[in-house]
Amino acid sequence: MAKTSSAYVCTECGWQAAKWVGRCGECQQWGTVEVRGAARATLARTTKAAAPEAGREAKPITELSGDSVKHRQTGIAELDRVLGGGIVPGAAILFSGEPGVGKSTLLLDVAARIAGHGARVLYVSGEESTGQIRMRAERTDALIDTLYLAAETDLASVLGHIEMVDPGLIVIDSVQTLASDQVEGIAGGPSQVREVAAALIRVAKDRGTPVILVGHVTKDGSIAGPRLLEHLVDVVCHFEGDRNTALRFLRTLKNRFGPTDEVGCFEMTGGGIAEVADPSGLFLGRGTIPVSGTCATVAMEGRRALPVEIQALVASSATPNPRRVTSGVDPSRVAMILAVLERRAGVRLHDQDVYVSTVGGVKLSEPAADLAIALAVISAVSDRPLPLELAAFGEISLAGEIRSVTSGSQRVAEAERLGYTRIIDSGAETLAEARRAAIE
């Protein structure tokens, strides 16, 4: 006999408990655990062996061919870089990102490019009508005869469209809007998301057709729905960017077919999403006259070296508590650097307002930018501009030492490629030496 018990399920992540609790044990959210109706059955364990289907027998790995699962390029070099070379047939790819960041625009461009090569592409939207999608397609020049649009929220109807169109690529925008009448719960709930995702992934594997799923995110930026969704798919990509800037970054959080440390750069334009093959011009000042308070550094985004200009402004404070304002850099890191400058390098800052910012809205979180921040502040205090051909990177310790950082040779090569002939890194052992090397 099957044994039954009441199930309490977290509506955010799908975590289950035998009794009600106020806080989810998985995602740590309060008030999200609810009872889910009757009960779940504990089935008896299967003990009888079953013969595998024809063509699914286990084979030696040396007899298997990998030609059918090679990467196929999408026509967008930055996306291909992030995916490891392109889309693999039969792959399930999950795209996430905040509302309005440009996920649908990017995927519509991908669908149009693949359809332009003769393949049929099915784009299913549960959030927009087909007329709205066509309006965006007209703006981004994505009107292709082999691009099929459908506005559906029922899983069975979507599977019917797949059978009729027989596409080479499936785009679902978004997985939280689809629901199956065979499963209890509202669309977007953990049980519905699991069933919808599992059904679409089965179609992708059986037909060898890649499927791209768009996933909503919660207020803290994580993918909404059960964590099982990220385990089911092959690739998880996160599209991020600040609404106040046009810059967008595409990162891989999981990739079974390639690296997970690649980053793709895009720019939001009036005609859609445009890839940025060389983003160096976005984060560097364009002046030809040296200005005090600026210093260039080379940051690493994944395996890509990005030159960034850091700007600092120091002014006398009119209040007992001087201001420390930052944009694009870690405030705690800047506060530590200012303390080291005052204690180890003799730079008086306790009665000065300090403003530190990056150019282009890029965000730096790695400690390699410490030296550039320090030199920019020193330049602003002394009102002596640094040479235009100077770039600096290195981590500053509390003792005033400059420590080496990862990918040093790649940073140097990128700086030299852009014309920086004077590079200060861990070769300067102390902050005082770096100060003399920069200003003298």
Judged by helices, strands and strand pairing, the structural class is: alpha/beta
Order of helices and strands: EEEHEHEHEHEHEHEEEEEEEHEHEEEHEH
Q: Can you give the helix content as a percent range? A: 25-40%
As for the number of domains, it is 3
The biggest sheet amounts to: 9 strands, mixed
Low-confidence stretches: 38-44
Anisotropy-based shape: elongated
| Gross CATH architecture of the largest domain | 3-Layer(aba) Sandwich
Terminal residue distance: 85 Å
Number of helices: 10
> Can you tell me the CATH topology of the largest domain?
Rossmann fold
Strand arrangement within the widest β-sheet reads 6-5-7-8-4-9-10-11-12
Round the Cα radius of gyration to an integer and report it.
27 Å
| Fourth-level CATH superfamily of the largest domain | P-loop containing nucleotide triphosphate hydrolases
What's the average pLDDT? 87
Beta percentage is: 25-35%
The count of strands amounts to: 20
CATH secondary-structure class of the largest domain = Alpha Beta
